[in-house]
Records
---
Amino acid sequence: MRFDVLTLFPEMVRAPLSASIIGRAQAAGQVTLGVHDIREHGIGRHRTVDDTPYGGGSGMVMRCDVVADALAAVTTAHGPGKVVLFEPSGRPFDQRMAERFATEAHLVFVCGHYEGVDARFAASLGDRVEVVSIGDFVLTGGEYAALVVIDAVSRLLPGVLGNADSARVESFAPGRGLEFPQYTRPRDWEGWGVPEVLLSGNHAKIEAWRDAQSEERTARVRPDLARR
Ligand code: J9Q
């Protein structure tokens, strides 16, 4: 799968994705990442990428012509792809969206900064763009959102997770609550033991205990998930 990221801060995106499992997926050719500096398409000697909002107000708005030129350069070089624009006003990202994105061959992420991108950019793309938010909080820009989505999508691709990383049944699968608590050695740590049932070797009892723990945790921490 190919990911292209359009950003004003390429170094924020490249380095984190070269580490760990996604780094290994790139080295193995399962994931190809292109990172592109929007400023290369900026206007004039100062490579201007933003301007003050029509109608007034605080902050700066990214110019639609600049962002559209940056996108055109990527699609000319690498073919069209589904465009994902990160904005606080987007549709909320979740595991179902990750699964849908994982069926695409090519995703192009556009990371807005300042007070976002001129609305005509998304409007001009129609069905080719999805405006996405990763949660109800304010970021300085879309770069961390792109990292979150690339991680969540990449680990769903065939072969990206090794056995040790395990694609086991997980939280956020439809109808599933939160994970049960996990323990490993040492068996006693500064007076903290491990629940006796996990040492019992009785797998039916262990499964029942884990199910009860998941249910209790989901009801307490995520009543919104418990209800569905
Ligand atoms: C671009 N706050 O916030 C939550 N999901 C995405 C965002 C975001 C932001 C600012 C700029 C994306």
---
Amino acid sequence: MRAGVITGVGGALPEQTLTNADLESMMDTSDQWIVERTGIRERRVGGVTSALAVEAGGKALAAAGVDPADIGLLILATTTPDRTVPATSASVSEELGMRCGAFDVNAACAGWVYALVAAQGFVATGVDKVLVIGADTLSRFTDYTDRGTAILFSDGAGASVVEGREGREGSLGLLGWDLGCDGSAESILYCDYGGLIKMEGREVFRRAVRVMVDSSKRSLEMAGVTAHDVDLVIPHQANIRIIESANQRLGIPMEKSSVIIDRIGNSSSATIPLALEAAIAQGRLHDGDVVLFTGFGAGMTWASAVVRWGQT
Ligand code: ACO
């Protein structure tokens, strides 16, 4: 059996910054309320999903030292594709010069972790190198007259190269995972064709904490480790209070989390790989570390993965 290990990570953000002060001039809100209730100070908007995915994917390939032609599969997690048909992964694969299978995954903000777990499955069955991208442009579907959602959402992309390593299954790469979906909760967060995102914020918040905690516990159990063994949590960046509540219930101190929500907001499937990129840039990851990825999104979906960091 082969382990799938992350060998390169890259991120991309659109140039335009939307600050809390900008939002104050657009609606009845305040910087103080947004910072206290969400942890967000500014977010990036105005992106194109495929372009952000190409930029992040290119950076991940360069970081891994992998030629695009050597990638055996592209999985693009997005809930905001460029078009209905074809899949955005088709455009991304062409732009990056790839000649392999490519498909999109829509699991909302849990999408990148869904794709990471799927990549491990493909690596185990013989694909050598998988490019896993999370890219979203929620600003295109955000109602800027609704202060309950406009303050949160943003655009961005994050990518990782996952490569197979012989004989390391269970000791390197993905040690445990949990994917879930509760379709009975789809009405609390949705966007119809041609419409804008509608959300029951309080209900999403309540369920988000519960599913992140339960999903993390299941992944840790499958991995055969405890919350105490976790060196770094890389959570979906939806609301700082959701991250704090989940950490508290798991018994993991906030210092062990990669948090960049203050400057990127909620860019759906992009936030976890972007927070991973930030952790690597800050030198926070070391070989042998136990990393917990956990997220939730519209559906309601959730996904967690426990990874033993390192390449050999
Ligand atoms: N500025 C000022 N006041 C506001 C704002 C705002 N932007 N938004 C709401 N308020 C007011 C409300 O009107 C309410 O006032 P009232 O008490 O007079 O009625 C008060 O603040 C409290 O409102 P709540 O909705 O209870 O505020 P809450 O603390 O729950 O924060 C928020 C709202 C930020 C939306 C929060 O519920 C949240 O983050 N929920 C989770 C959302 C989420 O994570 N979504 C992403 C899912 S992932 C995906 O798939 C995209």
